[in-house]
Amino acid sequence: MVQSGKNLPKKCDFSSGKWVFDQSYPLYESTCPYLSTAVTCQKNGRPDSDYQKWRWKPNGCSIPRFNALKFLAKMRNKRIMLVGDSIMRNQWESLVCLVQGVIPTGRKRVTYNGPTMAFHAMDFETSIEFAWAPLLVELKKESGKKRILHLDSIEDNARYWRGVNFLVFDSAHWWTHTDKWSS
């Protein structure tokens, strides 16, 4: 639910707004154990941290602050899966870091199965999962080194997301590459 200036719900255009500095951010620490080293600026030597204190403020409405316990309560007994490339993996890491702080040690775990990984919030019976599928469709190696992109088939990847309650896809980044994927 978006809040308007007059306390009446209204449609909000999230694409129109500005970045505002907010001292109460970030919503999770850069020491979150689920962040990849490659995306952890502080671990990689960045001396400042003010870049983490910016949030998006749409014009004419406000986005409520994320509440991990409310989110997990709404997602109780659900599977959430993010499917895509490294950009989507970053989103998975961020979402996991947003919720993991409210879960006691020993009541959360990560499991791995082929190209997937899943964060489990055991007390909520909720999983936040990631499946590596940069093109979503199948890319198979045929004779020699030639790769064939099967635009009509997602079966190899789809087997991982069967039974998921919420599914988020990302793949646009890979369709414009001209290097190794273009063969």
Fraction of residues in β-strands: 25-35%
Radius of gyration: 19 Å
Structural class: alpha+beta
Order of H and E elements: EEEEHEHEEEEEHE
Integer count of domains? 2
Shape type: globular
For the sheet with most strands, the description reads:
5 strands, mixed
Total number of β-strand segments?
11
Please list the strands of the largest sheet in the order they lie side by side.
Answer: 6-7-8-5-11
Distance between the termini: 46 Å
Mean pLDDT: 84
Feature tags:
183 residues; globular; 16% helix; disordered N terminus; 3 helices; two-stranded antiparallel ribbon; 28% strand
Description:
It is a single-pass membrane protein. It comes from Cannabis sativa. GO terms for molecular function: O-acetyltransferase activity. Helix content is 16%, strand content 28%. The chain is of the alpha+beta class and 183 residues long. The strands form 4 sheets. It has a 5-stranded mixed β-sheet with strand order 6-7-8-5-11, with helices on both faces. A two-stranded antiparallel ribbon has the order 1-4. The chain starts with a strand and ends in a 14-residue tail after the last strand. Strand 6 and strand 7 form a beta hairpin. The chain is globular, with a radius of gyration of 19 Å.
Quick take:
The protein is of the alpha+beta class. It is 16% helix and 28% strand.
Q: How are the elements arranged and paired?
A:
Layout: E1 3-4, E2 17-21, E3 54-58, E4 61-62, H1 68-74, E5 79-84, H2 86-100, E6 108-113, E7 116-121, E8 126-132, E9 138-141, E10 147-150, H3 155-161, E11 166-169
Parallel strand pairs: 5-8, 5-11
Antiparallel strand pairs: 1-4, 2-3, 6-7, 7-8, 9-10
